[in-house]
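Handout, page 2. Input:
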Amino acid sequence: MIKIELPLHPENQVAMARYMQDQFKFNGVKAPERHLLERDIWSAVKHYSATEMLALIRQLYAQEAREYQYLAIDLAVRAKRIWQLADLQDLLAVVTDKAWWDTIDIWRKLYSEYIKLHPEQFDVIWALFAGNDNFWLRRISLILQLGFKNQTRLMHLTQAIEADQATDEFFIQKAIGWALREYAKTDADWVRQFVATHQLASLAQKEALKQIK
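Output:
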């Protein structure tokens, strides 16, 4: 198993931690540098099996600095073609570990990409998140179809929003607005009608209509 050690930049640590409301410690490695380092790391691990990749992801997640979690998720997304449904189910324990909006929103990409590769398994993936007791996983159900455009399954999107439209959780309401705002790029009239016929929280409504003229 490859051993990964990211550089330390003390001059960036305080600002990066503050941006995340001091929820996590950082090495101070900013995204551009991390992505450059990731290229070399990916070259060394791109032939890993799913079992080996999962072990590496867990190893990275055990590290304290937040950049290791970002790296783990990026590698998981890059390795999207190796995963089977059982692997994605196993990964949920990692997804919910040290969860915050930053990691959740990147993990969403993995499950979205899996659906694009295996559209027949949409309902099974959907069931991992929709109605879950963990609101971070429900956030994924709300934003799972970002960028799906005409392929968006509106019944599922509606179900996810209606289940949480009264939830007093900032990150849920932001996700509702985000999902609707994204779909408005495909069908603004549908979003207008949806907002008009649902009692959305003011935050969700504001976010949903932000880019509709």
